[in-house]
């Protein structure tokens, strides 16, 4: 009897074991749920150009990884970016204009990059500005370039007529008056480009908006844009054409063409971004004595700030990226000395990592500008290409060309 009981118990264990083995075997051959692993490629969305040599260099050093680039123009870029980020696995690294940086952090849309060694290679002015902007020591993007609006000028002409460098509104308008009276074209600006027209508007109105208590921008419907002091600043822009300060030929030139005309000694001054240094070489400097100065804004402070920002845009890792490791690897490569040197050689523009020098005096001038306090346009008055429509962004060009009055310009913004 006892032996039969033991046999029954052993039989039950044996049957249970066989069933367990059958279940394990069955589940082993079932389709397995896929686990999310990092791929071997990433997609970068940008509105500026990343040189082909940079991408080729990364692929040579890391042949198992691939970089895909998507570009979209500045106009309405942020709306397009929002659409892309909704799509799963659509983009890993994004170029983000500084004006949207804090909002993206607060919404948790970026991965932090603070622990990366690459920040030791970046100019302290850019990093200090990001900390001031966010109130945090953490970084969520690489501030690759700065963005200063400055005045290039023909030093020989300014010395001939005993003029101060055009480093503020008063000196600028005085120079325009003198050159117009002497039959010299005062100013080159590529006003066939809406962006160049907005840059010129920003410079000439900064004085009026410097003391504004809150930003006058699309975010608040350009509230207060029709105040008398602002309308007077717009009138100054409107009057440039009639007073002969802004030749009509400027409305048919791109920014590049206008700067080239300045380098050919056809104009006394040029309003052009720091990237215009790409057009300067030794042969140009042998023919014309030029310099560049920041445009200072009097705001009741002891030292007048210059118009511009230490950070133009940032390269950030999207929080939704499944390829953070490759993203960090690319950002590290992108900021290494040899990579930046090649970038500078290809684009002939400057970065926050390695300054490009075509002339020692110009290098000193730019360093002086970048070491000063800044008047950040988006903190005062700014028509953003990243959020507004084409019609709104074209308003400054119409104002300079006298197609609309200052009052109509203000009404166009507030509507």
Write the SSE topology.
Layout (H helix, E strand, L loop, with lengths): L1 H28 L11 E6 L5 H10 L4 E6 L5 H10 L6 E5 H9 L17 H11 L7 E13 H6 L8 H13 L5 E2 L5 H16 L18 H15 L12 H9 L5 E5 L8 H6 L2 E5 L11 E12 L6 H11 L2 H11 L12 H11 L3 E2 L14 H4 L1 H6 L5 H9 L1
Parallel strand pairs: 1-2, 1-3, 5-6, 8-9
Antiparallel strand pairs: 3-8, 4-6, 4-7, 4-8
Task: Write a structural description.
It is a single chain. The protein is an alpha/beta fold and 415 residues long. 45% of the residues lie in helices and 13% in strands. It is built from 17 helices and 9 strands. Strand 1 (41-46), helix 2 (52-61) and strand 2 form a beta-alpha-beta unit. Helix 8 packs across helix 9. It is globular.
